[in-house]
């Protein structure tokens, strides 16, 4: 397990830093580490440090214009995916997919306020 200064960092470009902070802290269990809205905030959950870069941030400016968005997404584990989906739908959140099942487990894609994807994943239980 990583120590508090050994986070794995992922940067998401967001349209509204405060809306992103509210989304990740209210609905997905992240806590605020740093917030300098409207430019930047970072939130943490376990060893994951999610850097939320708004339009005025240097991180957002580093992406060349016209670069297509990646297909990356944050991957969060849940023991009861159905209960989590019900909770988030009741909060009015939008999903980009239905539940997909495979040999490793089940997943659904949640969309943050800027359209970034978050994969909610329930591992398959061993038989």
UniProtKB/TrEMBL annotation:
It comes from the Bacteria. The keyword Metal-binding applies. Transmembrane segments: none annotated. InterPro entries: Glyas_Bleomycin-R_OHBP_Dase, Glyas_Fos-R_dOase_dom, MMCE/EMCE_epimerase, VOC_core. Keywords: Metal-binding. Residues 6-123 form the VOC domain. Residues 53-72 are annotated as: Disordered. This is VOC family protein. It comes from Nonomuraea salmonea.
């Amino acid at each position: 397990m990583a120590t508090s200064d050994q986070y794995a960092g992922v940067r998401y470009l967001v349209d509204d830093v405060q809306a992103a902070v509210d989304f990740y802290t209210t609905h997905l269990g992240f806590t605020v580490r740093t917030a300098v809205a409207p430019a930047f905030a970072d939130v943490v959950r376990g060893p994951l440090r999610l850097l939320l870069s708004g339009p005025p941030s240097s991180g957002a400016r580093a992406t060349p214009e016209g670069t297509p968005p990646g297909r990356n997404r944050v991957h969060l584990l849940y023991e009861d995916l159905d209960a989590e989906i019900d909770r988030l739908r009741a909060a009015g959140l939008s999903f980009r997919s239905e539940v997909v099942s495979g040999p490793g487990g089940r997943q659904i894609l949640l969309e943050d306020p800027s359209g970034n994807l978050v994969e909610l994943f329930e591992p398959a239980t061993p038989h």
